[in-house]
Structures are given as C-alpha cells and as structure tokens.
Amino acid sequence: MKKMLLWTIVMALVIAVCAAGAVTAADAPGVSDTEIRIGQWAALTGPAAAWGAVARGAEAYFKMINDEGGIHGRMIKHLVFDDQYNPARTVAGIKELVEGPGVFAFVAGDCTACALAARDYLVEKKIIWMALGNAWSIKPDRHFFFIYPNYLDEAAILVKYAVETMGKKKIAFFYQNDDYGKGGLKGAQQQLEKYKLKLAAEVPVEPQDRDLKSHTMAIKNADPDVVILWVNPTSAVIMRKTAAAMKFAPLWMAPSTLADPALMNQITGGLWEGTIFSCLAELPDADIPLMKKYRAAFEKYVPKGERWGIMYMAGFGFAEPLVEALKKVGRDVTTDKVIAELDKMTDFKGIFGHITFRPEDRQGQKEVFIAEALKDGKSKRLSDWIKADR
Amino acid sequence: MDMKRSHYEDIRLFSSRVVFAWFLVFAGVLVSYPFAASWLGKNYYIYMANYMAINVIVAVGLNLLVGYAGQISLGHAGFFGIGAYGTVLLMTKLQVPFVLALPLAGLAAAGFGFLLGLPALRLEGPYLAVATLGFGLTVTQIIGRWDLFGGRQGLHAPPLALGPVTLAGDFNLYWLIVPTAVVMTMAARNITKTKVGRAFVAIRDSDVAAHTMGVNLTYYKTLAFAVSAFYTGVAGGLYAFALGFIEPQTFNLMLSILFLSMVVVGGLGSIFGSVVGAMLLSLLNLKLASVHTLPFLGPVLLQLSESWFTVSGLPNFQYIVYGLIMFLIIVFEPLGIFGFWIRTKIYWKSYPF
Fold it and tell me: CB–CB of B48 and A52 under 8 A?
C-alpha cells in the first residue's frame, strides 16, 4: 500500500513537471523577454547543398544585428535545420522547432516540395513566413510574404529591355519544361504582344537532358537576334557550349536564376561573357554603403573559404524586411502586430529591389535591373530598377 | 532452448504467455502514445510515430523479398511512389473512396512488382540489383514527365474521408497508419509460416534445390516481388497523406537505399528485425538533423565541427553516424539488430553460466 502511494506521488510529480513545461512553451510563440526565435530550413548537405549558403547568409545577418544590440533589447536566435531537400525531414524539423523551443517566424526555406509540404502546418500554427517567391504556386495565406518577383514579370522586363532599349525584334525563348520555364515563357509572350511581335522560336528542354544539339539547331534555324535562356545552370552551360561548337552567336539573355556571373563564367569556361541578365539584388561588388556593411559582416561571421555571392546575399535579403518590421513594431511583439507592420511596408529598400507589401498583394518585389557579364566573371550594371508593365 | 517440438508450436503467434503479456504492454503503449504526446502539446512526436510506422510497413515488405526470398531490390522507392500517386490519383480523378483506393494502389504496385519479378527469374545478385535500380529510377522519370501526375510540380493529397469522418492532422492519421502497420506486420509473420513463406526460404537457400523439390520458381519469385511491392505501395499511399504533398523527386534512389539499409540493419530474414531497423533508422533520419540541440554532446560536436569539418558543419555528422552504424553492423553483427537481440536473449537465459 505504501509503495502504491509512493508511486502515485512520483507519477503526479512527473506529470506536473511535464505539464509545466508544456504550458511555458505554449505561452509565447517564439518571443521571450530576451530573444526572438526565427527558424529556417535549408539543404545544408545532400544533392542541393549549394543552397545552404542562403542559411549561412541569414545566420551572418542575424549575428550582425545581434552585435548591433539586437532588436529593442531582444537578441535574434536563428534556428536552422538541415532537411537535405527531403520534405519528410522538413515537416519533421518544422514541427520539432515550433512545438519545442517555439518559433516566431520562418525566413527563406528552399525546395518546392518541402515548402508545399510545410505550408498547411505553418498556416495551422499561424507562423509568419518570409518566403522566396510565389512561383511555387503556394496557396497564399495571411501569414505568408513572398519576396521575389514572379517569373512572368521578370521575363516581361527582359523582353522590354531587349525590344525598347536594344532594339531587337527576333527573340527566341529556350525554357525548362515546368512551371518555372512556362512562367517565363508566358511573361515573354505577353510583353511581345504589346509590340505586336511573336517569339521567333519556343524550345522546351527537360532538366535531365544532356544532349542539346537538336534544341540548339531548332533555335539556330529560326535565326534569332536574341536567345533568352530560361533554364537551370546545367542546361544553360550545355546550350552555350553546343552553340559555340555550331558557331551560333546571338545575344544571350538570362534571368536572375542564372545571375551569378562568377560561377557561370567558371562553368562555361569563359563563354558567359557578354550575356545580358536580370538582377533581383544589387551586384555583389556594388559600391553602396549597405553592400559594404554586409560584405564586412560576411568577412567577420562566415568561415574562411566561402565566396560572397548571390546565395549569401539572398540570405541577408530575405531576413531584411522582417527585421525592419520588428524594429518598427517596438517592444511589444505579437504576430498580428508584425503582420500589420509588414502590410504597411512601402518601397522598403534593402539589398533587393524596392519591396512593398499590402494585405491583398503579398508579392513584395516587382522590379529588376539589367546587367551585363564581363570578362573574368565581373559584371556591369546597365540600367536602373525597371518595373514590369505587361 | 528455442526448440520447437510440434508444427503447432512453430506457427502460433505467441510462443508463451510471457510473450503475449509483452504484446499486450506494447499494444497499450501504442494506444496511449498519441494521447500522451498531444497532452504534452507535441504533435511532432505523433508525426514521427506515423513516419516510423510507414517505414515499418516498407521494411517488413522488403524483408519478405530480400531476407526471406533472397532477391535484392534497389527499386522500392518506385513501388512507394506508385502507391502514393496511385492512391491520390484514384481519389482525385476517379473519386474512389480511400478505403478502396489504398488497396487498389497497393495492387497496382504489386502488378509492377510482378513485372519486375520476371527479370528476377534470370538475374541474381548485382545484376538483379541493377535491374531493380533501373526500375526505381524509371518510375520517377515517367511520373515527372507526365501531366496526369502533376509533372515535377507534384500533387496535393485530397482530404482523407473514411466513411463519414474526415481524418486530418497527425493525431487522427495515427489511428489509421499504426493499426495498418500492426496488422500488416502480423500478416507478414503469418506469411512466413505458411507454404508460401517456406517456399521463399527454400528459394533463398538454394533455388536449384527448391526447384527439385517441386517449388515453382516462376510463381514464387514473382509472388515475392508482388507481395513486397504491395506492402510498399500501401505504405506509399499512407505516406502521401502523412506528408500532404508528393512530388517525383521524393521517390529517389536514396529512399530505396534507406529502405534497404533498414532491412540490413534490422536483420535479414526477421520480421522483428525489420520493425526495429525501420524504427531506428527513421528516428536517426529525423533526429540526427537536430543533434546540436542535445545536452552536453551537442556543444562538443559543434565545437568539433567548427574546427575540423567543412563549412556546412555539423550536418555532416549525420552521414558519419549513419555510415558508422552500417559499417559496425556488417562487420560485427551480420544478422543486424535481430542477431544482437538473439544473443542477448541466450546470454540471459543461460546466465550466469
């Protein structure tokens, strides 16, 4: 009997302790007196490990903010986990963070499938998510903010620049056969309709295809002045090498997904020179105060041997609007207040283009600028920020 | 000590009352687990249990093929994908209710399993591995290029209606996934004790001898593939709902290898081993990503990774642990966790001698 009593007491104590833990965790979703917890999933290892640089960029940015004194007395705690581009792991990791330490918001987060698998849970838990772009066809929600311009706008701006500024008429479009490629194709077609023009050639490619001779021939036969490459870096490289072998040298254009001239120059073996491409963010070596500050933060917080480029900058850029909103909200941080503050954001200029959010329009950035790839992976800015008007 | 004196003793489900009592305890834990987890506010643990249970179904099915029938497969992610896509498409395009769609998708996977079983009649060892590998890769390619399957953009799982109730959330899914896993595991155990299971084992040990004794090789080899594919297909169908979203790249080669390693780590030719192996590797797969949050060990490892590893840092640790486990098991315990369990049991039964 005594034993039974003892056991009952022990059990009651255990239960009480667990319950206490559960209550404190649920009390403040990711915000305490001293810290704000911001989560991120990223492929730090595995086949898409290159994307991990985005997470390390965000990490460096938050360290910089913390060393400047944090946000109204709170430090940012950046909780990154490695999902290896595997949605099952993404969902598990998000649940673990949200139900464990608690997370106030998520920033960036790569991998289409991972993001789509994570969506419903983020909605259910009412967690702010500063997402890449809605090109992923993610169903919008009150808590989601998309930063990148969509592909339709970007393709329209490229075409606009080619026709209006460079005076080109015959444009061929080489695109990846999925939503990414088709989005770009549609934007280009819509913009050309305004000039009563049509694409000289539309050639799709599967991302796994490695022999692009027939694709290149199809484009070459249309004899275009400009070829827009709306593909992944691998296909772009193969296309450029095949074209060079065929002595086919039009003016090449590329979207921001290929806007890493240093990398492209290296993997094409110098063929990338002269390519006109659109940029979502200031050039990595731009001579502006903000970029200098970020480069300094990069030197300070990121281990040696890494390269300051688009990926790292994206990590800084995705976190900027959230930090800006948190600064404006002040000491009393709640999800609703931060959403209201983000929805007031008008022409916020960080490392990306101008970002504006409205409750009915969560597509933040709608502009890009045009640059040209120079020798040795350098690049030169050709235009100011251009807005789409398709 | 584990000597069986009669046929009945061999085929009965619980070899003694003690085993039955343990089974009851286990069932009790399974039933109370989600309540405890949701009471603590940790849905995450229920999700993890669901993920484990799905992998248990695959591992049990794969072990029937690899461990019992002795046929290797590196293409099970393909069956997994067929099951997942089959269930979702049957429900969204043909409005088939879930209760029918899941077994139908399982049967579709079994059909492909049968087809893959045909080359297995002529191939063995590494040749069979390559043939099945090709199958697994082909499935993702076909699914990825076909608009019906949502192409590379993937598909969302529809709401899961079981008669009048709609199951949503990890807690509700648990009551679908875990009982399915338990029932299928017991069914697999029964298969191994019937004529079919004995035929599988005979083929594994020597297909020539089995043929001489009158085992129809064509029938049983293709059957082994079909049964295994059925298990994997059903698991795939459940996975689509546990995740809520599927796309072709989820069903890649790494997944096939993960499945195979579950079976190898757990123990070839053992149902118990498949269950434990699947649970262990699923757990590692999910938890190693957050190894840095462990008390004491976490900071030490973080320090270690900062001084010695590449810039991606600690996440590399999971590969080391993974590799180490596989390596140690193959060198020291070829029978896997099951072998370890047997030796422990024998040791304690004869203790202190």
Answer: no
- Residue of chain B minimizing CA distance to A124: B169
Q: Euclidean distance between the first and final Cα of chain B, in Å? A: 14
- The pLDDT tens digits of the residues spanning A346-358 come to 999 999 999 999 9
User: Could you give the domains of chain A?
Assistant: 35-148+287-359 (3.40.50.2300), 151-279+370-387 (3.40.50.2300)
pLDDT per position as a tens digit, A201-241? 999 988 778 899 999 999 999 999 999 999 888 889 999 99
Helix, strand, or coil here: A233? Answer: helix
pTM exceeds 0.90: no
Residue A387 contacts residue A380 (beta carbons within 8 Å)? no
pLDDT at B45 over 50: yes
Do residues A120 and B244 lie in contact, with contact meaning Cβ atoms separated by under 8 Å?
Answer: yes
Q: At the topology level of CATH, where does B46-287+306-349 sit? A: ABC transporter involved in vitamin B12 uptake, BtuC (1.10.3470)
Tokens standing for B134? 């090709």
User: Is residue A254 over pLDDT 50?
Assistant: yes
pLDDT averaged over every residue in chain A: 86
Q: Name the residue in chain A with its Cα closest to that of B44.
A: A95
Query: Given this model, what pLDDT does residue A20 score?
Result: 41
Residues of A in contact with B249 (CB under 8 A): 85, 113
Pairing of the two strands A251-254 and A226-230:
parallel
Q: What single DSSP character describes residue A160?
A: H
Which ipTM did the prediction report?
A: 0.76
Contact at CB, B47 and A95, closer than 8 angstroms:
yes
Contact A387, A269 (CB under 8 A): no
B311 to A56: CB separation less than 8 angstroms, yes or no: yes
